[in-house]
Amino acid sequence: MSSTELLQRRFDILGKRAPLFYEKPLHIVRGEGVWLHDADGRKYLDAYNNVAHVGHCHPRVVDAICAQARTLNTSTRYLHETIVRYAERLAATFAQPDMMVMFCCSGSEANELALRMVRECSGGTGVISTAHSYHGNTAAVSQVSAILSTPDQRGPDVRMIPVIDPYRDRVQQDDAPLVDGYCAEVDSAIASFQNNGRKFAGMILCTGLSSEGLPTQPAGYMRRVAEQVRAAGGYFIADEVQGGFGRFGSHFWGHQVQGVVPDIVTLGKPMGNGHPMAAVIARRHIVERFTELNPMYFNTFAGNPVSCAAGMAVMDVLEDEGLVANAKTTGDYVLAQLRDLAQRHELIGDVRGRGLFFAVELVQDRESKRPATDAAKEIINAMSRAGVLISRIGPFDNILKIRPPMPFTSANADQLIDTLDRVMSTLRVTA
Fold first, then answer.
1. C-alpha to C-alpha distance for 232 and 224, rounded to whole angstroms
2. What is the DSSP string of 337-402?
3. What pLDDT, in 10s, does the model give residues 202-260?
4. CB-based contact 136:142 (threshold 8 Å)
5. Rounded to whole angstroms, how far apart are CA atoms 275 and 416?
6. What is the pLDDT of residues 381-400, one digit of tens each?
7. Staple partner for 53: which of 71, 211, 270, 425, CB 3.0–4.6 Å?
């Protein structure tokens, strides 16, 4: 069957609004490491997908899933050693010694549970997020996901703070005044709840501010935000769905990069390398209080033996293949190459990132820093046609998002950079 025919069948059964990547949708049939293969046998370098965190179809993860599925997969309300061992291993990656694990099936579900926890444990309802956030698609989580909801849909229990933008806001300022200004927005949001008779419950932030455009956070920003939240009687939720499991190279978790100690951490996609699993990791007193209030809380499927076998295999691969260290060394190489590329293309206003997560902000001119949204769209589609997959993010969709699987190498980086250079030179886009 042709890709055109398959696309029409998809439209007929899923609807035309079910999103697809790229103007010409890709018909992917196989994945291996950092490579994806389409139905016509064409090979694509995947520089975007973090779901396959340790590489597409990693044999150790696949074998672990198959072996456990052949033995047992059942409700989590039975004792099983793999479930306990994996939870212990996961909790041990956090600096806090009192973290407990609650398993979920998706990042959306993990954030839903985290919101329940902060609201029930605080006795409040007010939650703060950012004005271009994405934390999932359940009813409650979409309310704190600005890109999925309107102010009317969020209701009186959600406040959005502006996205921080040091690239435009710095204007020769040091970090301290930037942090002061950004944190004033948090204080204002908290006060807004109080002034409207709503008790504050907490705040949720992606540790890399990923959907917001991966801004380079001024030193101490997130740590100070967490302090403000706690001082007001709330809880700080660190969303690690995109930044976790060594993505930023220097640390295992994004909140560790930012020097913040969260009350609750949410995990998702990369946890099982594509297997549907997620988790909430929280301070012991929070979990115990929540389960006192909800004595029958359980999740039949989440954290089942097959899921935990997949999670354990991901941890093994990260450790045995040195993938966190690879994120640091290869990431430094990519960042240097992207900055060199910026010297040759005026369209690139800013390059930022850490580990294997990069943002390339495109502007119409460097003086005004006006977003080059159309150029970003044109470039990601041209990159796809050239065999390299990236995406775009940010409030104006003008930021190239580059976030490859963790086995990405310097040779892969050379292909990425060469292709991006060629695409930008050929298209000569300016707006």
1. 13
2. HHHHHHTT-TTEEEEEEETTEEEEEEBS-TTT--B-HHHHHHHHHHHHHTTEE-EEESTTS-EEEE
3. 999 999 999 999 999 999 999 999 999 999 999 999 999 999 999 999 899 999 999 99
4. yes
5. 27
6. 999 999 999 999 999 999 99
7. 270
